[in-house]
Amino acid sequence: MSKVPPKVRKIAVLGARSVGKSSLIIQFVDSTFSESYYPTIANTFTKIIKHKGQEYAAEIIDTAGQDEYSILNSVHTIGTHGYVLTYSIASKSSFDMCGVIRDKILNDTGMDWVPIVLVGNKTDLGQAGQRAVTEEEGKAIAAKWGALFVETSAKVGTNVTRIFELMLAQIEKPNGEEADPKKSAAANNDCRIL
Ligand SMILES: Nc1nc2c(ncn2[C@@H]2O[C@H](COP(=O)(O)OP(=O)(O)OP(=O)(O)O)[C@@H](O)[C@H]2O)c(=O)[nH]1
């Protein structure tokens, strides 16, 4: 029997500067972490993920950090299936930036909903008393958007693969199905990173 080729799914990782977008992707793709900071211009990574028996080639676009003045590049939206909106739990302004970026995506695509996973990164800094955004605040805004939510640490490796499992569940959920984090989380027990 011939093997079904992987379906390509383009995922853009967006968020303010220095929130850990590249670190999360590199931790996911390579299982490594670096304390050094090199601002990103643009990069694409590919990783095969198995979800509900189907292989997906996740094409992950790492972007330069955004601010309120940056214009969303249509390179990030054209052909994009899902968005990972990232903030640092130690930075309220980076959390607020996710809302600004979401508005820009909706405006650019003309959609009133797109698949989003909201990610609160750098949870390890919470242990150091640097938390500025509570988990409840993250959950609440994600629920308002019909998005899925997860807190992560690229440094420790916490929940990094979960981001992409949730992203595929959000992209592949049947049309018209209400965003339900619990349902999607359950669906994801069937998800394997290859
Ligand atoms: N403590 C801690 N530091 C992190 C974590 N993730 C990233 N960092 C650090 O934060 C800094 C910025 O990380 P990057 O991954 O380059 O951030 P970015 O969002 O890609 O940055 P831009 O390319 O400018 O948009 C680096 O010094 C990382 O080592 C984390 O989970 N915990």
Automatic annotation (TrEMBL):
It catalyses: GTP + H2O = GDP + phosphate + H(+). Keywords: GTP-binding, Hydrolase, Lipoprotein, Magnesium, Membrane, Metal-binding, Methylation, Nucleotide-binding, Prenylation. InterPro entries: P-loop_NTPase, Small_GTP-bd, Small_GTPase, Small_GTPase_Ras-type. PROSITE patterns: RAB, RAS, RHO. Coiled coil: none annotated. It is found in: Endomembrane system. Residues 175-194 are annotated as: Disordered. One of its GO terms (cellular component) is endomembrane system. Its main location: membrane. It is a lipid-anchor. GO terms for biological process: signal transduction. Pfam families: Ras (PF00071). Gene3D superfamilies: P-loop containing nucleotide triphosphate hydrolases. GO terms for molecular function: GTP binding; GTPase activity; metal ion binding. PANTHER family: RAS, DI-RAS, AND RHEB FAMILY MEMBERS OF SMALL GTPASE SUPERFAMILY. Belongs to the small GTPase superfamily. Rheb family. This is Small monomeric GTPase. It comes from Chytriomyces confervae.
